[in-house]
Design a protein that fits this description.
Number of helices: 8
Shape: globular
Distance between the termini: 40 Å
Number of strands: 7
Strand order of the largest sheet: 3-2-1-4-5-6-7
Largest sheet: 7 strands, parallel
Order of helices and strands: HEHEHEHEHEHEHHE
């Protein structure tokens, strides 16, 4: 096999040219990286978040990114997001349910309203957006849905994390398996990515504090937190034809945190 043939093969496996992707929570953190990486791989990316100004700034530097203001807890906004995405190429090939928020680390500080609100955003919104998408898809459409969970959904990380957040991220994994089972024969793949500890808005200064940063280093097999971009390869793999026979799976990108 020649070098050019190998390059073409890899481009065909991992390339996303001609595909349309929807990424929620795309205005910052990991979601911003997902949007820019999918665009770099060739996809047209419908980037959704509540902070339109950040999305417009992102789109200014990336002509294949389309900014859409969206509160994913709103059914009206979810439907509008799907409709906008379908106008690009007539279908949606990739959906990344990434929007989310942290909760209080102390269970006794959780209120009933706060617990429900967090699950509505972190878990239910992704479910409703996924079902809204599948209702619009043609029979036999080859679509990849990627749900973003967390190591907090796999193991206790007390005193960091929180019960409502852990419940939402563990629920995301169960939802992923069930939707994969229900939709697999329709050509819809559903998988989850589980990031470990990354320095984002969500971790709220975890790495700025030497005590908590040291805790991450000591308990991670690679001896460090995640670096920018280190989840993106997993996203491209699950979004592309390279994972065409992968569904219902949980891909953990945590430097060995949960394997210790």
């Amino acid at each position: 096999m020649t070098e050019s043939t190998t390059a073409e093969l890899l481009s065909g496996m991992f390339g996303l040219h001609g595909k349309t992707a929807v990424v929620t929570g795309a205005s910052s953190g990991l979601g911003l990286g997902f949007a820019t990486t999918l665009a770099a791989a060739g996809a047209t990316v419908v980037a959704a978040a509540r902070r339109l100004d950040r999305l417009e700034q992102l789109a200014a530097d990336n002509p294949t990114i389309i900014p859409v203001q969206c509160d994913v807890t709103s059914d009206t906004d979810r439907q509008a997001l799907i409709e906008r995405a379908f106008k690009v190429t007539g279908t949606v090939d990739i959906l990344i349910n990434n929007a989310g928020m942290p909760g209080p680390p102390d269970a006794e500080q959780e209120t009933a309203e706060g617990f429900s609100s967090l699950l509505d955003l972190n878990l239910a919104a992704g479910f409703h957006l996924s079902t809204a998408l599948t209702r619009r898809l043609d029979e036999g459409a080859s679509t990849s849905i990627i749900n973003i969970s967390s190591v907090i959904g796999l193991v206790s990380t007390a005193p960091i994390g929180g019960a409502s957040y852990a419940a939402s991220k563990a629920g995301t994994l169960g939802m992923t398996r069930e939707l994969a089972g229900q939709w697999g024969r329709r050509g819809i793949r559903v998988n989850a990515v589980v990031p470990g500890w990354f320095d984002t808005d969500m971790t709220d200064g975890l790495f700025a504090n030497e005590k908590s940063a040291g805790w991450v280093r000591r308990n991670t097999m690679l001896g460090r937190g995640g670096q920018p971009g280190e989840v993106n390869g997993a996203i491209v793999f699950l979004a592309s034809d390279a994972s065409s026979y992968v569904t219902g799976q949980t891909l953990v990108v945590d430097g060995g945190w949960t394997a210790r």
